[in-house]
Amino acid sequence: MPYLSDIPAEILERASRIKLVAFDVDGTLTDGRLIHGEDGHEWKAFHVLDGHGLKRLMANGVDVALVSARISHVVALRAEELGIDHVYQGQFDKRACLEDLLHGAELSPEQAAFVGDDVTDLAAMRTAGFAVAVANAHPWVIERAHWCTKLEGGRGAVRELCDLILLAQGKVEEELKHWS
């Protein structure tokens, strides 16, 4: 399988333990641009491949959470559309939010991944057992991540991670049968 074939064993091991993935939103699920119309409405673009990957993670028993410092109605709508129950907006302390999520789910940090793109995500990434940066993350974030996607935020990076977790947990063949 050429896709994701060059993943180091240590990364596959980390991904095999994941029961919860928490994602920053702007710059991770989106390309990071904030578009404001003259009417005051905010626009964001989400990649359909990322959304499908999130749905497949949840269908395979991995919880998904969105953790954002910003508050956006568009994010709430996208989460509802995807069936994501854990949506935390206005979270300036993402580490505390992740710790609360872990406590509520009775999970250890090693069972969680945090995906980010900027320095505001570093504390939560340090808490998680699997810290992931998207390809276009700030260099300081990439340096401190366990793994960095090849694709950029808002352009398939989330799907890349979802597929990696499914691969590490031995669920790819079952997924392919589901769609064949």
- CATH 4th-level superfamily: HAD superfamily/HAD-like
Helix content: 40-55%
Q: Could you give the count of β-strands?
A: 8
Largest sheet: 6 strands, parallel
Q: Rg to the nearest angstrom?
A: 15 Å
User: Low-confidence parts lasting 5 or more residues at pLDDT below 50?
Assistant: none
Mean pLDDT: 95
Number of helices: 8
Q: How widely separated are the two ends?
A: 17 Å
CATH class descriptor: Alpha Beta
CATH topology value: Rossmann fold
- Strand order within the widest beta sheet: 5-4-1-6-7-8
Structural class: alpha/beta
N-to-C series of helices and strands: HEEEHEHEHEHEHEHH
Proportion of residues in extended strands:
15-25%
Number of domains: 1
CATH A-level architecture = 3-Layer(aba) Sandwich
Shape: globular
Structure write-up:
The structure is a single chain. The chain is an alpha/beta fold. The protein has a single domain, classed as HAD superfamily/HAD-like (Rossmann fold), CATH 3.40.50. It is built from eight helices and eight strands. The chain has a six-stranded parallel beta sheet with strand order 5-4-1-6-7-8. Helix 5 (122-127) links the parallel strand 6 (112-116) and strand 7. Helix 1 (9-16) crosses helix 7 (157-168). The two termini are 17 Å apart.
Sequence-ordered SSE layout with sheet pairings:
Elements lengths: L8 H8 L3 E4 L11 E2 L5 E2 L4 H12 L3 E6 L4 H10 L3 E4 L4 H12 L6 E5 L5 H6 L2 E4 L5 H6 L2 E2 L8 H12 L3 H8 L1
Parallel strand pairs: 1-4, 1-6, 4-5, 6-7, 7-8
Antiparallel strand pairs: 2-3
Helix pairs in contact: 1-7, 2-7
